[in-house]
Amino acid sequence: MNFTSFLAVSKMAPDDYVGFTFFVGCMAMMAASAFFFLSMNSFDKKWKTSILVSGLITFIAAVHYLYMRDYWGSNAYIDGLLSSDPDVLKEASPTFFRYVDWILTVPLMCVEFYLILKVAGAKKSLMWRMILFSVIMLVTGYVGEVIDRPNAWLWGLISGAAYFAIAYDIWLGSAKKLAVEAGGSVLKAHKALCWFVLVGWVIYPIGYMAGTPGWYEGIFGGLNLDVVYNIGDAINKIGFGLVIYSLATENSK
Q1: How far, rounded to the nearest angstrom, does the alpha carbon of residue 213 sit from its chain's CA centroid?
Q2: Contact by Cβ (8 Å): 234, 54
Q3: Which of 82, 98, 117, 235 could be 122's S-S partner, Cβ–Cβ 3.0 to 4.6 Å?
Q4: Is the pLDDT assigned to residue 79 strictly greater than 70?
């Protein structure tokens, strides 16, 4: 930790919930990565790739959370940006690092669906289709949140359409059919991951609406987007990995 980071940490207020969730998120992701990587040799060969991907998701997130934690601390405290003005707080938000994290980890989460459904004959076209929709979802979200904020509602709508395309595929489309064909623990794990996408991923649109202008400001404007995003990351990325871990454990007995 450099001097600037140390000074930022030493000045962090007890009621700084954003800084707190950055710290907790960073440590939780690190712990999850160590857990997944160290447990790989406990499973059959066909599940090791899935566990490896789970570890990579949380490891990439942990590294970015280190940067985001320091970025938030240095901007909010060293530069004196911390105030009650929501526009000033948004300047201290590490949006760029967050989207770099997501553009790497969210497609990997889509890969997890393909890996567990390979036993039922899933083709790579399923994986690439889900990855494409996830990239569209993230790129349009970044444009609305950073580049074209006056039209954030429109970019959010496009991002939401890509999200629903993913949700449809796993709940009602080809991914669902493959999971039913596989049955047993694979179907159970698929359903769990589907619920993470349906419920857990909904946290992110709430954070988006909390941090961008639009008709929804009166509903979500009082929330802090970083706290919402940090909670969402911890639930979804670690939760995804634990579902895969449970599936690998059950099928390696």
Answers
A1: 22
A2: no
A3: 117
A4: no
Question: Phi then psi for 248, rounded to 5 degrees?
Answer: -65, -40
Structure tokens at 17: 């919930």
Environment class of 147 (CB within 10 Å of its CB; exposed 0-12, middle 13-18, buried 19+): exposed
Say which residues have a Cβ less than 8 Å from residue 34's Cβ, sequence separation at least 6.
Answer: none
Hey, what domains does the chain have and what are their CATH numbers? 3-251 (1.20.1070.10)
> In whole angstroms, how far apart are CA 134 and each of 76, 79, 174?
31, 35, 17
Handedness of CA 127, 42, 231, 94 (dihedral sign): negative
Per-residue model confidence as pLDDT tens digits over 179-231: 999 899 899 999 999 999 998 898 898 888 888 888 887 777 667 788 889 99
Q: Which amino acid is at 197?
A: V
pTM above 0.85, yes or no: yes
Q: How far does Cα 170 stand from its chain's mean position?
A: 17
